[in-house]
Here is the input.
Amino acid sequence: MKIQSQYQPFLTVDYIVKEDENKLFDRKSSKVKPTDIAPIISAFANAEGGTVVIGVAEKTREIEGIDGIGNDSINDLIAAPKDVCIPMPHYKEEFLDVINKQGKADRLLLLHIEPSPEQVVRTINNSTYLRVGDRTKELKGEDLRNLEYSKSVRHYEDECHPDASIEDLDKELLSIYREKLHAEDLSYEELLKARGFLKQQKGSNKLTNAAVLLFAKNIVQFYPNCRIRFVRYDGTKARTGVDINIIRDQSIELPVLRIIQAAKTFIGSQLREFTALDTVTGKFQIVPEYPEFAWLEGIVNAVTHREYAMSGRYILVSMYDDRLEIESPGKLPSVVTVDNIKETRYSRNPRIARLLTDFGWVRELNEGVKRIYSDMKKFFLDDPIYSEPEQSVRLVLKNNIVMRNLRRKDRAAEFVGEDIWSALDENDRHILVYMSEKREVTRLALQTHLKRSNGYITRRLARLIDIGIVRANGNTHDPKRTYSIICRE
Here is the structure.
């Protein structure tokens, strides 16, 4: 019978002895003291949780067992998370029956430390640790602050900016904000102080990071990472070197209160629209590549909930032929996961989120995400995909271009009739597929789309006109003459 943990089934006696320590598992000798395992308990609690297995020699990996140390020592080890850490993390103790190195029945003690998403767990000597791979790393300085930001113990947005003053803020934005709050009787200084954007520090008024991020006239002066970079690729993969396939690279560098509208305008101009003839109504319909709410809400969430303390990182919007990716610095805040993101409400930057709500941009986190799912479904597109690669959050919206191309061919064949369609060669079909999406097209448009010469397009159009499936509109010598498909009844 295989002996294994009931809480972590992968922890069998064989695994505990043979496998290397990792981010979820550490082994300790039965001679260990409670204070010795305090750093590991803190590290596991501040990361993804983990199990401390006590009763195995650390170097030789021999099974010592714990029965030989006595009940008092065993109880001290069981109580270690409560006695040596502040605050006490949630945990469970468990015993595994084993045969020790002397061949006698014995036990291992397993302390299953649960992750602590909303608080930083420190040791009683006020040191803080984090589990990174198989190492227990003590955090200090910026690393410690970033951990506190991630658990919302400390909010970067509420810390004071050392250099910025009210003169550095955009008075137009401040005026709009004051009007929205119906607080025209307040000065800008009083307004900012009342909303927590201006604080007393060492006898003087200091703007918070949130105030500067939201209202700065020149955001690059203070936060070069407050930007959205849009990159459009030709194809479905990003290539580099001589094969680089970037066809548009644009950065939007503005304060938070202006960057969303600018991104909406610019990115909206880059997304494609598909025009199709409805054979039932005889009217052309314009269908956007993605539902606007889905991609715009993805950008709003990225701007609102990103980790602004991560220097050198920016929001990246990547457009491929088959998908749109929105990547935001920082992992999902606190208790939010990719699995519960539709149901769980939380904000890393509550003041920024509150103000963007006043401006009509932000909904509750899960409310907007729910609609992204529902709008994609209405467009017969795949569900959005959330992931957390390399300390960031990525949203992927797929446009189902493969199925759309199949439908385009089916639609073009329906317009001209299956008998004629089957008799055409592939080049004629390419022209008809393109024309089936447009009300009218010019020769130049066909040349550009198919990357063919004027003579080639002219000959092909003449052939399709002779067959009776394409109509010429306008004078023969008119350079703006257009062509349209003749839809068979």
Q: What stands out?
A: The CA atoms of residues 114 and 306 lie 26 Å apart. The mean pLDDT is 87.
